[in-house]
Recover the amino acids of this structure.
C-alpha cells in the first residue's frame, strides 16, 4: 500500500543510510550525479533542489536521467527552501519541476514538497538500477599547488590538503552545519552558487572558510554546470568571494581559471620552492 511507503529526508545524497524503498527528499542539487547517488541507494522516488536550474539546465538534469530508469523524481524551487537541507525542503519547499513518472503520481509545479512526496508514495519502483555514471576527479593544473576539478565534495580525499579544489558542488552548508564547509584545509576552493537561493544559503560555505583562512569563491550557476567540476574550471565566472579570496585579487566577473592560475598558484608556489 502506498501509505506504507516511508518518506525520508537527508542533507545530501552523498551521505545516505537506510533509504532503500523510501521516497527521499534530499538537499542536494538536481543534477545527474545527485540522481545517480539516489538511485544507487535504492530509493523509490526522489525530490531534489533545482539549484537555480543554471547552465544547460544542469540543476534539474537528474530528473531526466532518472526518468530513463522509470523513477519518479522532482525538484523544488531554490527560492522556496534551503539547498543542503532536506528537512527544510520537506517543510516549506515548492515544486518547480517534475519528470513524467512524478507527474503520473499527480506531482505538479507549485505544489508543496510535502504533498508531492506523499503523492510519490504511489510511484512504481524503478525499472532498473542507474546507468553508469563516471563521477570524476581531474587534475587541471600541476602547480604547485595542484588544482583538481571534482564533480562533488563527496570525492575529497585526505591527500587534497593544500590543493586547489574546484568543485561542482553547491556552496551551501549542509543543514547549516559549519563543520560541513570543507573536509580538508585546501589552498583554495570553488563552488557553484546554486542560484544563491532562499536565505542566501547557496554561498554559506564562504564565510566559514574565511574564518579558516581558506580563499573561497562561488561561480554564477549560469556560467558553469552544477555537479560538473570541469565545467566550473572551464567556464566558471566568479560571482561571490570571501575575504581571503579578495586579498589574492579575486573580483566578480573573473574566470576561475584566471583567478587560480594568475593569483592563487603564484601566491603559493614561491613558498613551496623555498
Amino acid at each position: 500500500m502506498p501509505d506504507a511507503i516511508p518518506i525520508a529526508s537527508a542533507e545530501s545524497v552523498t551521505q545516505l543510510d537506510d533509504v532503500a524503498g523510501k521516497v527521499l527528499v534530499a538537499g542536494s542539487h538536481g543534477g545527474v550525479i545527485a540522481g545517480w547517488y539516489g538511485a544507487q541507494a535504492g530509493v523509490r522516488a526522489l525530490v531534489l533542489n533545482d539549484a537555480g536550474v543554471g547552465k544547460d539546465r544542469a540543476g534539474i538534469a537528474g530528473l531526466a536521467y532518472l526518468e530513463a530508469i522509470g523513477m519518479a523524481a522532482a525538484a523544488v524551487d531554490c527560492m522556496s527552501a534551503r539547498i543542503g537541507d532536506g528537512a527544510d525542503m520537506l517543510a516549506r519547499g515548492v515544486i518547480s519541476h517534475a519528470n513524467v513518472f512524478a507527474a503520473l503520481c499527480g506531482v505538479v509545479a507549485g505544489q508543496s514538497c510535502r504533498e508531492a512526496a506523499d503523492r510519490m508514495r504511489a510511484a512504481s519502483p524503478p525499472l532498473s538500477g542507474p546507468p553508469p555514471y563516471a563521477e570524476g576527479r581531474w587534475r587541471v593544473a600541476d602547480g604547485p599547488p595542484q588544482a583538481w576539478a571534482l564533480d562533488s565534495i563527496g570525492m575529497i580525499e585526505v591527500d587534497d590538503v593544500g590543493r586547489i579544489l574546484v568543485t561542482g558542488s553547491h556552496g551551501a552548508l549542509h543543514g547549516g552545519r559549519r563543520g560541513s564547509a570543507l573536509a580538508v584545509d585546501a589552498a583554495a576552493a570553488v563552488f557553484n552558487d546554486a542560484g544563491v537561493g532562499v536565505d542566501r544559503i547557496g554561498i554559506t560555505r564562504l564565510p566559514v572558510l574565511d574564518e579558516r583562512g581558506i580563499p573561497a569563491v562561488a561561480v554564477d550557476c549560469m556560467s558553469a554546470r552544477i555537479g560538473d567540476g570541469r565545467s566550473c574550471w572551464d567556464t566558471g565566472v566568479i560571482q561571490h568571494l570571501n575575504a581571503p579570496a579578495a586579498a589574492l585579487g579575486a573580483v566578480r566577473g573573473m574566470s576561475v581559471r584566471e583567478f587560480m592560475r594568475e593569483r592563487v598558484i603564484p601566491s603559493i608556489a614561491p613558498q613551496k620552492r623555498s
